[in-house]
Amino acid sequence: xxxxxxxxxxxxxxxxxxxxxxxxxxxxxxxxxxxxxxxxxxxxxxxxxxxxxxxxxxxxxxxxxxxxxxxxxxxxxxxxxxxxxxxxxxxxxxxxxxxxxxxxxxxxxxxxxxxxxxxxxxxxxxxxxxxxxxxxxxxxxxxxxxxxxxxxxxxxxxxxxxxxxxxxxxxxxxxxxxxxxxxxxxxxxxxxxxxxxxxxxxxxxxxxxxxxxxxxxxxxxxxxxxxxxxxxxxxxxxxxxxxxxxxxxxxxxxxxxxxxxxxxxxxxxxxxxxxxxxxxxxxxxxxxxxxxxxxxxxxxxxxxxxxxxxxxxxxxxxxxxxxxxxxxxxxxxxxxxxxx
Length: 340
What we know:
Blueprint: H1 4-29, E1 34-37, E2 48-49, E3 57-63, E4 70-76, E5 81-89, E6 102-108, E7 128-132, E8 140-144, E9 149-153, E10 157-160, E11 165-172, E12 179-185, H2 195-199, H3 219-224, E13 230-232, E14 240-247, E15 253-260, E16 263-264, E17 277-284, E18 287-292, E19 296-299, E20 308-314, E21 320-323, E22 326-327, E23 329-333, H4 334-338
Parallel strand pairs: 1-3, 2-4, 13-21, 16-17
Antiparallel strand pairs: 3-12, 4-11, 5-9, 5-10, 5-12, 6-7, 6-11, 8-9, 14-15, 15-19, 17-18, 17-20, 20-23, 21-22
């Protein structure tokens, strides 16, 4: 079983660094959105689960690759008004023209006519409808005192839920251009956010480079992902993991993580470890590419000489789950997938 006292002792030095980070941001964060960063691509199969759309969250995300569509899911009461907004970090990507993604909200009680701007890849469930999120015309230049940075802010949209139920926001670029964005939902400001996002905040003011992984490691990796600091479990209590890799006709890959005794809980990142809860890490030839938060993940491309894809399971607090000191992981040789 998990020995929480041992875990706390092992993590004490890392908590000191985290505390320093929090002290640096705490006074400003009281008046700011809770930040969360897209360290793994969010998709229709693994959307961001918004805990409470009344609370103000800021999701720092990436449209990458160019055909990427990001998804955010939330529960609303009938008649509840939810703020939906979009900001663009002011960086070299929008020096000449401002990055301009589009957003739509999908759910019960919305108009049944499909908006013409909606990409063909976005499915509207039976009994649901969709409407575009009104972002206005030219965005306004805005200084954010929390991070001492500048944004281009599009107009706020106040979505009124026609029925109680689950709603999804889809976000994409109409001309299939890569770039960074900040999706803001909710109005009530409450202290919080993802510690790892706090530490990686500055990365969202660097342009995305075609062919470079935007879901790269962050400073928290050095603190929390030490392979010697694992949560050892009895084999009968431990999660299991089976990785399947499917090569697609366009040269991309779909990854399926088949697990037992395990639940993906991206909403609990940085919280206390719970047996059978957490996320996964994706490695290619030993290099970490992404944090995975669901059963399916799409890899748009891989280096032609890549050999091995590996995934491993981690707890909410970023410690690896292990049996007898060995991380719970599975690997697939790409030569077996490609039929080399």
